[in-house]
Amino acid sequence: MRVPLIAGNWKMNGSLALVEQFGQAFSKANLSSSIDMAILPPLPYLAAAQTAFEETPLWLGAQTVNPEPSGAYTGEVSASMLSEFGVRYVLVGHSERRSLYYEDDQAVLARTQAILNAGLTPILCVGETLAERDEGRTEAIVLNQVKAVFDALDARERQHVVIAYEPVWAIGTGRTATPEQAQAVHAAIRACLGDYDEQMASTLRLLYGGSMKRENAAELLAQPDIDGGLIGGASLKVDDFLAICQSVG
Ligand code: 13P
Prior knowledge:
Shape: globular
Distance between the termini: 13 Å
Bound molecules: 1,3-dihydroxyacetonephosphate
């Protein structure tokens, strides 16, 4: 019912050579046609990746976007520019953008709307810090981040969003949420989406991110409300990323 999505967020890593390596490996890999797979490289690699991924099942994604359509915003890119390079998915609200570049819920909403207006799919990232989890506020924090966007979208827009739950304490730390911890938050997110629309809640894809790797992917992806993964470090090694794609049950 929900097509799994495995997305590799390269962050500020990779090279043209890595783009080529992924293109070659994925053009001959044995992969299920019933999952979506995407690589989100740094922006300068989009053109090369568009060409390298042509004969592969890989979709292309971007890690950020400016909410404005054009103008004097030095260093920024618009959603329509991403669209010109065949981008399908765009991250928004990643914890690194929230903490390092001060993107608050309002900024996250504006970007989500710009992505949707360009006909692209936002991957809305949400997640709590370790202190927030220890204080028992995980659900409140995560659901507030979801509602900050979903309250402002209309019914048609909501169904085009992908949500990625990424506990901040699990990102790049090697410390993964247990399948039970991740499933509990995913179930809470889906229940919250059900307050908007049951049909949308049952079809919207919820990804898990945070130290997902080939060793733990299968049991995380086997959880009933985990519909895919947002992979950081392990998406930089073609064999590891392939193994994760192949572990979707
Ligand atoms: P790691 O897989 O390196 O923990 O990164 C997760 C992430 O932030 C993906 O967006």
